[in-house]
Amino acid sequence: MGIIHTSRIKSPWIIHFDNSSCNGCDIEALACLTPLYDVERFGIVNMGNPKHADVLVITGPVNYRTARVLKNLYAQIPDPKMVIAVGTCACSGGVFHNCYNILGGVDKVVPVDVYVPGCAARPEAIIDGVVLALQKLAQAQGVAK
Amino acid sequence: MAPRTIAPFGPQHPVLPEPIQLKITYEDEKVVDVLPAIGYGHRGIEKACELNEYPKNIYLCERICGICSCIHGITYCEVVERLWPVEIPPRAKFLRTIWSEMSRTHSHLLWLGLLADAFGFESMFMQFWRIREKVLDLLEMTAGQRVTQSISVIGGVRRDLNGEQKKKCIEVLKEVRKESEALIGVLANDYTVKARTVGKGVLSKDQAIALGCAGPTLRASGVCEDCRMQKYQAYGDLEFEPIVETAGDSYARAVVRARETLQAIDLQLEALGKLPAGDINVSVKGNPPANEAIFRSEQPRGEVFYYAKGNGTRNLERLRVRTPTYANIPSLLVMLPGCELADVPIIALSIDPCISCTER
Ligand code: SF4
């Protein structure tokens, strides 16, 4: 196992994309980075550039306009990558399921590895989701966690 | 003439977590033109509200925006109550005010943190968000949720505050006030902060009025306009004076929000002290009559306007929401041209854009 494989698991870089969420889950995802939850101590860093990222954190349901942006973003992230859908509306459309501009959950457009339900999802749940995603990645690469 | 370049700012950008796109044309390092492209966050909530029953719309309206969700829910209830009309008990009015101000505190602290982050003052960002967590804990203790509180129902509020919770609120709010005061002192006097914000994105009083700006963006340009001056809910019984600055630059907008944070805490403390006894809601049965109503209230970002039309059935005929960011986006077209490219994130952030509100 090379150093890159190991460090990908030990220090994943995440990128956050907001489809058309209500912001509730975005600010909870951002709250994970701040002192009370502080995921940086696990090596999780928030990135602005998809080409640097390993984990794509998506909040909000997909609508007709963001679907293209999301596909584009997904395609720019280098393999292996993990996708986490944060919030009930990212998982299934949630409260917005019968809005006319909504396609549905994120999985309508890109493959999702971990679903984090909750409206809004609590920071603890989001951290749990990232950890689960990493376990999945480790298994896929045959790296001991 | 130097060659012109067009750069997209968004829809995915580290400074703004939300999807908005600004197409920025620049020459050397100077911005010459800006074209905002909105529509990424559109869901169609207004239409969906016509499909649900009245009480269910509260949850949908709260999810217009997750940061000021509490006030969206309350404003929806207020406008629907005006269709009958229903008079809510005084205790419910006070509780609504307390929760509104609590969400204003958390929203402003969040924004102050993001501003610090926008110019790379990472430790201040962390400090503001650390303080904000205390306010969120209070919200969780009193309303049961950190972000989308859903405390308002048609006819009053869903939860009451008991003596112990009240005591805890007062204690924590005082602590939050002391800590934010210290931090705001740094923000207002720090050399780097001033260097990045003073004189950036100036909006004159006349421009602000002509463009129809709202909220802190308007008040930072010297216009004394605040919906809370209508004395709705409990504001008539509290000491309230709008906060106005005159410089109209990004710094003035930061100072307005910083001072409003402290003011919101004072209002909560005062309201907690004056909280009247009594019921927290009146039971409202049946469907509202065919009628129209409007209600305006003050969000952290400015004035929000709700219009509702009932037709005597279980569903609304029409709901219309006008949000403060929609009023504030045109001001970017005046503020951005002529600024340095590096100042774009700060100026764009200084109107506190909330895209999910704007596009719904
Ligand atoms: S799950 Fe709920 S809180 Fe989160 S973005 Fe969707 S509507 Fe907002």
Could you characterize what this model shows?
The complex is a heterodimer of chains A (145) and B (360). Chain A has 145 residues and is an alpha/beta fold. Chain A has helices at residues 3-10, 24-31, 66-76, 88-92, 123-141; strands spanning 13-18, 45-47, 55-59, 62-63, 82-86, 102-104, 114-116. In chain A, β1, α2 and β2 (45-47) form a beta-alpha-beta unit. The two termini of chain A are 12 Å apart. Chain B has a three-stranded antiparallel sheet with strand order 1-2-3. In chain B, strands 6-7-8 form a three-stranded antiparallel sheet. Chain B has a two-stranded antiparallel ribbon with strand order 4-5. Chain B has one domain (4-359): Cytochrome-c3 Hydrogenase, chain B (Orthogonal Bundle), CATH 1.10.645. Helices cover 48% and strands 14% of the residues of chain B. With 360 residues, chain B is an alpha+beta fold. Chain A binds chain B through residues 15-28, 30-31, 34-36, 46-48, 50, 61, 63, 65-66, 69, 73, 89, 95-96, 98-102, 119-120, 122, and chain B through 11-14, 17-19, 39-45, 47-48, 51, 59-60, 62-67, 69, 110, 113, 125-127, 129-130, 133, 136, 145-148, 354, 356, 359. Bound molecules: iron/sulfur cluster (SF4). Iron/sulfur cluster sits between chains A (21-22, 24-25, 59-60, 87-89, 94-95, 119-120) and B (63, 66, 148). Iron/sulfur cluster (SF4) sits between chains A (21-22, 24-25, 59-60, 87-89, 94-95, 119-120) and B (63, 66, 148).
Summarize the topology.
The complex is a heterodimer of chains A (145) and B (360).
Chain A: H1 3-10, E1 13-18, H2 24-31, E2 45-47, E3 55-59, E4 62-63, H3 66-76, E5 82-86, H4 88-92, E6 102-104, E7 114-116, H5 123-141
Parallel strand pairs in A: 1-2, 1-3, 3-5, 5-7
Antiparallel strand pairs in A: 4-6
Chain B: E1 4-9, E2 21-27, E3 30-37, H1 45-49, H2 54-62, H3 69-81, H4 90-118, H5 122-143, E4 152-153, E5 156-157, H6 163-189, H7 191-197, H8 205-210, H9 216-219, H10 250-274, E6 291-299, E7 302-310, E8 316-322, H11 324-335, H12 344-350, H13 355-359
Antiparallel strand pairs in B: 1-2, 2-3, 4-5, 6-7, 7-8
The complex binds iron/sulfur cluster.
Iron/sulfur cluster sits between chains A (21-22, 24-25, 59-60, 87-89, 94-95, 119-120) and B (63, 66, 148).
